[in-house]
Amino acid sequence: MENNEDDKFVSLLADSTFKYMFKDYKDFFKKAIKSTINVDISEYELYNNEINSGNKARDYRLDILLKKDNDFIIIEMNKNADKRTLLKARKYLYAKAQDGGLVEGEDFKKMHTILINFNNSKYKNDKEAISVGYDLINEKYNDVIDDIKVYDIYLESLENVRYNGSNEKETYLAMFRAESFEEMRNIANGNKEALKVVEELERLSENDEFRVLYDAEKMRRKEINSARLDGYDDGYGNGYEIGITKGKEDEKIAIAKNFLKNGVSPDIVSESTGLNEDEINNLLDELNS
């Protein structure tokens, strides 16, 4: 899918897109999610997690994390649903869930953590399934622990969806897998709310600040995927870890080179990648030599 994308196209299936649009288009995301898995995000806010950095660009590169009181929703935007991708997401879910049970004096506050995986693929056990939910359950006593839930949303099963007046849920979800603005408009097929989203994405495609963040995310995915493939023959566990490490090491330089080649200013490149002035100048010398 990614190789076929128009260079100016902005996909809904991206962390940076969700974060930029969440405040003004929350109702669109709410409808797409609530009608599919019955999770209401209307009272959640985008969690400004500052553990990664203090600058705006770096914050937008974090995974999507929504917060309401002590409850969290993690949203993952994936091009596919392979075992490694889902395992990584669930590890993050379990790590976040460990922050629960916040102690305030003598009070114990229960915390609920939900993981929602958007995947542009089909569920292996049912090619027509749109969503699959998971609970922690004791099968013998049918006892469910409701602190943690996982929902996988499979978008490829919506490949032929067009709005017909009664399939709003499917229409909104199908837009996440579109590869061009024209395809998005065809899916929307006159739905006013969906067309407003397309118009906003087209506007964002001309926004230089957003393009830096969006293209950085796109490049990072390519670098990590390449590293995974390079390391895969060493065995799933070892190869995966080697691949991820290599991807992280190569990521900043690859993204910086790509931006510099396309005329992005050194200051913006530095803010987006975390490379310092000397490192940026060295890359410029390398590109100009």
Mean pLDDT: 80
Helix and strand element order: HHEHEEHEEEEEHHHHHHH
Rounded to the nearest angstrom, the radius of gyration is 20 Å
Task: Tell me the overall shape.
Answer: globular
Distance from N terminus to C terminus (CA atoms, Å) equals 34 Å
Number of helices: 11
According to DSSP, the number of beta strands is 8
Number of domains: 2
Instruction: Please report which band the strand proportion falls in: under 5%, 5-15%, 15-25%, 25-35%, 35-45% or over 45%.
Output: 15-25%
- Main sheet attributes: strand count, strand direction, barrel closure: 6 strands, mixed
* Sequence stretches where pLDDT stays below 50 over 5 or more residues: 49-61, 101-106, 231-240, 242-247
User: Percent range for helical residues?
Assistant: 40-55%
Strands ordered across the widest β-sheet:
1-2-3-6-8-7
